[in-house]
Structures are given as structure tokens and as C-alpha cells.
Design goal:
With about 575 residues, the protein is of the alpha/beta class. The protein is built from 20 helices and 12 strands. The protein has a 6-stranded mixed sheet with strand order 6-9-10-3-11-12. Strand 4 and strand 5 form a beta hairpin. It starts with a helix and ends with a helix.
């Protein structure tokens, strides 16, 4: 974990090192001030020597000014190092998330990834800044102050040693007890963020079903879970101050009593006693800083583990070393394919699929909910790997292709159509960032989207709100189809992506495909038999197995499931 995090310091190593150097210099100079104060009192004030007072006073002023400057520089370098470190952590996580396969993404919730990128990184950032400042300053200050105290008067200095031992034991016990609550608290942020995300995304559903009170209770419960755990943790950490005060005032009382005796006995001067009081505060403040660092480190350890988990996550799907960079055609073969989402340990979703599709064919896929239609097409662009058998595209196993090359040639319009905030033109160019306006317009004409785009005041420069909330479901689907067409793929997969358009528009889109992209293999998944009945061949899936594969007329004779769907949808509509 430490190695993973340290690698993200990268170009900010110099700032981190400069922070440490300036903190060390600042601390060493501060330690001299009580010693100079003792000399000023003993050699200047008590001896009534104004030259000595001026001399030591000037030296103390220069040292104080130097420590102030060094403190400013330390803060500047630490801020730059910690914020840069946090930025690198976010970038490393986000970059790695982009490489995840669907199976990797399934391991993390969206809310969990958002929490890691925000709350967890902030915790680690604050901890890192404290480590390179306080965690360096406090031990050096403690050791130097203890050394100076022992050199002034060994017996009185030994009081500090016992105080340090007492505080170390108490702080260790407090940290160990608080640690388990912090470990449990931060994962609860995932539940909180998930509650917020679901509510905001589904706000229309919440309001239409008048479920605001239910959502408020759910959020309140998630918030109270975090509050309860932090209350317990902070309740334990609250013992820090009493323990610290006992040590500080105990040392002051002992030092006052024994120091007075030492002055009377002539083994200690007034100035030396004053410096010992200063060193006692230095030691106690150092311990206080260390306790704060330990608290922050304790809080951030859980966050650090969650961050490194994402950074070190390896994609299940990678391109082979000598990957193929050309997809010759749009032919597709499923060679006795079986697949399960838990790769061999779960219930098979697809079972012994044996299927051959020619390049340029239009294939319809139909079946009941849960029959694994979407799962089947996800294997073509290698969004998942098969458990057994092989998926062959263009005459080659998909596992032999470079992933980017394969996915550029297999364009998928998923069930859940996503548009991003930006103009219509910007959304279309997700399919091809170099596409001209004319190419975008042609793709939209093929997808029957041009007609409604022209009705917008700003046309192709119309701004799409986040999630495409300012366009209808059918318009969103047609824009997504146009975006997919701009890739000019060898295989086009429409995964129930015309469900929100009327049958006339659906038929018009399919006619455009037949006329304008005849060489592209087209796979159309639909719940409507009217969307697939004119396909070259139709695949009927039932519970992950092939129930039938043939033309519309052939399936009416050979597939009971297809016949039942046909009678329910077509004949029922004709009778109505």
C-alpha cells in the first residue's frame, strides 16, 4: 500500500523534500531560543549587563525571524506537495477505472468509486501534509528539547522522560481503540453517496410516487450510521486532551517544586529553570502534534486502503502481446460458447451457443426478459470473456485482437442510452471526434434524427443537459444510433435501442440501414416482433440457450416461443 501511494508523489518529491528540510531547520532554530533566553536572564538581566541583553535579544530576534520565514516556506511546499499528491491519486484511480472491464466495474458501486475519488483522497491528502510537516517537526522537536533539558539538569530532565512514556502508552491505547470505528465509518460513506445519487437521478420517479419521505428516511439512516461511528471514535479520542493536561501540569508542578529546591541548593540558575519550562512546553506540544498526526493517520488508513484497491485493480480483459490490429470482416461465429458472470463458479447465463453469422447480414434477436440477449452481444465486443468455447469476429478469436481495434469495429447502442452534457454535435462526435458536420448530418438522417434536430432553434449546436433530460426517450435513442454509425463499424448492434420510437420510425431506420450500410453486419435486439421480422435471420433465445434460428416464416413453423410472441403481438393487434 505504501509503495502504491508513494509512486503517486511523482513530480512533487522535490516539494516534499523541501518541506522536510525547511521543517528541520525551523525546529533546530526554535530549540535554541529557550537556551538563549536562559543566557539573557543569567548574563544580562541578573548581571545587569545591557550589552548582553542587547546581544542575546538581537540573536533571538534574528532566529525568530528566520523560523517565521522557514515556517512560511514549509507551509508553501507542503501545500503544493499534498495537493499535487491528491491530484495524482485521483488521476491514477480515474485512469485505471477507464481500463476496467464490466466484471471489474461490477465489483464496485458508482457511489463507492465517487467516495474514493473525493472523501478518501481528501483524507489521505490531509494526512500526507501532516506527515511531511508535523510528523517530521514533532519528533525532532521532542528529541532536541529532551536533549537540551537533560543537558541543563539531568535529574529534572528525567521528569520529561517519564511523562513521554506515560503519554506514549496512553495514546497508543486510544489509537488502537479508535481505529476500528474509523475502519467501519468510511465505507458507510458509500451508502450515503448512493442514497444521494439514486435520489437525484430518479427524482422524477420519487416525486411521481410521492416517496420523498421514504427517501429522506433512507438518507437519514445512512447519515446517522456515519454519525454514530464517528461519535464513538471521537469520544475515545477525547481522552487525548485530559491525558495531555495531566502530563503537562504534572511536569510543571514537579519542575516548580524540584526546580525551586535546586535553585536554593545552587545547582540550577533562574534562567535555566525558565528554559526548562520552555522545553517542557516544547515537549508537550510535540506530543500533542504527534497525537494529532496519529489520529489523522488512523482516519486515513482506511481511506488509503480503499484508494490502493482501485489503483491496483487489474482489468480482467487485456490485449494480447502480439494483438491483431485489423478486423477483416463483420462475420461472427459463436463456437459452443458458455458464459457465467462469476467465470465458472456461477450459474451459466449462456449455454453451448453455436451460431454462425455472415458479414453484412441483418440478424434479429428476440426472447423473454432474462433470456441473455444483451449478454450474448456483449461477448462480441469482448466486454466479457467466455468461460468455454470462443467468439470469432472476422475469422479471428476476439481474444486475439487489440481491444480498441475490436471495439472500434463493433459499435453498440446499449439498452440504457447515455448522452453527455454538451451540444448535439459534441455528443455525435463521441463516435468519431474528427467527423465533419456533413458526416454527422448523414448519420442523423440514417437514424431518423435529423428531422427533429432541425426543429431545434440552435440545430446541431443545441445544448444537451446532463443525462439528456431535455430530449425525449425516442430522440435520445436516435441520437445514440447516429453516434454509433459515425464509427463506420463492421458490426452494428442495437440492443433494444428503438423501443422508445414508433414502429413507422423503426421501420424507416431499418430501411436506411439496408440501403446505405449493406456491408455492415446488423444485430437488432428487440421485444417487438415487428422490429425483427424482416431481418435476414432471427435468433430466438430462451433461458440462455438457442430455441430457434431462421427466417420469420421458418420460425413460425419450428419455434413455439416465436409463434407465441407473434400471436400475442401481431394477431392480437390485428384483432383489436
Amino acid at each position: 500500500m505504501i509503495k502504491t501511494l508513494f509512486r503517486q508523489v511523482k513530480e512533487y518529491k522535490k516539494d516534499s523534500l523541501m518541506t522536510i528540510i525547511t521543517v528541520i531547520l525551523e525546529t533546530c532554530l526554535e530549540i535554541l531560543i529557550p537556551l538563549l533566553m536562559a543566557s539573557l536572564i543569567d548574563k544580562g538581566i541578573e548581571a545587569q549587563n545591557m550589552n548582553a541583553v542587547m546581544k542575546y535579544g538581537l540573536i533571538m530576534f534574528v532566529i525568530a525571524l528566520s523560523t517565521l520565514s522557514l515556517g512560511f516556506l514549509a507551509g508553501k511546499y507542503a501545500a503544493r506537495a499534498s495537493t499535487g499528491f491528491a491530484a495524482n491519486l485521483r488521476d491514477a484511480m480515474y485512469t485505471n477505472i477507464q481500463t476496467f472491464s464490466f466484471s471489474n466495474i461490477d465489483k464496485y458501486s458508482t457511489a463507492g468509486l465517487v467516495t474514493r475519488l473525493t472523501t478518501d483522497v481528501t483524507n489521505v491528502q490531509v494526512a500526507y501534509q501532516m506527515i511531511i510537516r508535523m510528523c517530521i517537526r514533532a519528533p525532532i522537536n521532542l528529541i532536541c528539547a529532551l536533549f537540551m533539558a537533560l543537558s541543563i539538569h539531568f535529574e529534572l530532565g528525567s521528569i520529561f522522560v517519564w511523562a513521554i512514556l506515560f503519554l506514549t502508552i496512553c495514546l497508543a491505547l486510544i489509537m488502537m481503540k479508535a481505529m476500528k470505528y474509523f475502519n467501519n465509518a468510511f465505507p458507510k460513506y458509500d451508502d450515503l453517496n448512493e442514497s444521494v445519487q439514486e435520489n437525484v437521478v430518479g427524482i422524477r420517479v420519487v416525486k411521481s410516487f410521492v416517496r420523498e419521505e421514504f427517501e429522506n428516511e433512507k438518507f437519514k439512516k445512512a447519515s446517522e450510521n456515519i454519525s454514530r461511528l464517528f461519535t464513538k471514535a471521537e469520544g475515545i479520542l477525547a481522552f487525548n486532551n485530559p491525558v495531555m493536561m495531566i502530563s503537562v501540569y504534572g511536569c510543571i508542578l514537579l519542575l516548580s517544586w524540584l526546580g525551586a529546591k535546586a535553585i536554593v541548593g545552587g545547582t540550577l540558575t533562574t534562567g535555566e529553570l525558565t528554559s526548562l519550562f520552555s522545553y517542557i512546553m516544547n515537549i508537550m506540544m510535540s506530543l500533542m502534534m504527534l497525537s494529532m498526526v496519529f489520529v489523522m493517520i488512523t482516519m486515513s488508513l482506511a481511506s488509503a486502503r480503499r484508494i490502493t484497491e482501485v489503483i491496483n485493480e487489474k482489468s480482467d480483459l487485456v490485449s494480447p502481446e502480439s494483438a491483431l490490429t485489423t478486423v477483416k470482416s463483420g462475420s461472427i461465429t459463436f463456437d459452443h460458447v458458455s458464459f457465467s458472470y462469476k467465470h465458472g463458479s456461477g450459474e451459466p447465463v449462456l449455454k453451448d451457443i453455436d451460431l454462425h453469422i455472415h458479414s453484412g447480414e441483418t440478424i434479429g434477436i428476440i426472447g423473454g426478459t432474462g433470456s441473455a440477449k444483451s449478454t450474448l452481444v456483449n461477448l462480441i465486443s469482448r466486454l466479457y470473456d467466455v468461460d468455454s468455447g470462443s467468439v470469432i469476429v472476422g475469422g479471428e478469436d476476439v481474444r486475439n485482437y487489440d481491444l480498441e481495434v475490436l471495439r472500434n469495429e463493433v459499435s453498440v447502442v446499449l439498452q440504457k442510452n447515455i448522452l453527455f452534457s454538451g451540444t448535439i454535435l459534441q455528443n455525435l462526435r463521441w463516435g468519431n471526434e474528427d467527423a465533419t458536420l456533413e458526416e454527422c448530418q448523414e448519420a442523423c438522417r440514417l437514424a431518423c434524427a435529423d428531422e427533429f434536430i432541425q426543429q431545434f432553434q440552435d440545430g446541431y449546436n443545441t445544448y444537451i443537459e446532463q443525462g439528456g433530460t431535455n430530449v425525449s426517450g425516442g430522440q435520445k435513442q436516435r441520437l445514440c444510433i447516429a453516434r454509433a454509425l459515425l464509427k463506420k463499424p463492421k458490426i452494428l448492434i442495437l440492443d433494444d435501442s428503438t423501443s422508445a420510437v414508433d414502429t413507422a420510425t423503426d421501420a424507416s431506420i431499418q430501411r436506411s440501414f439496408e440501403q446505405r450500410i449493406p456491408d455492415t453486419t446488423k444485430i437488432i435486439i428487440s421485444q417487438r416482433i415487428s422490429s425483427v421480422q424482416n431481418a435476414d435471420r432471427i435468433l430466438v433465445l430462451n433461458d440462455g440457450v438457442i430455441d430457434g434460428f431462421g427466417t420469420h416464416d421458418e420460425l413460425l413453423q419450428s419455434s413455439d416461443i416465436y409463434q407465441m410472441i407473434y400471436e400475442t403481438q401481431i394477431k392480437g393487434r390485428e384483432e383489436a
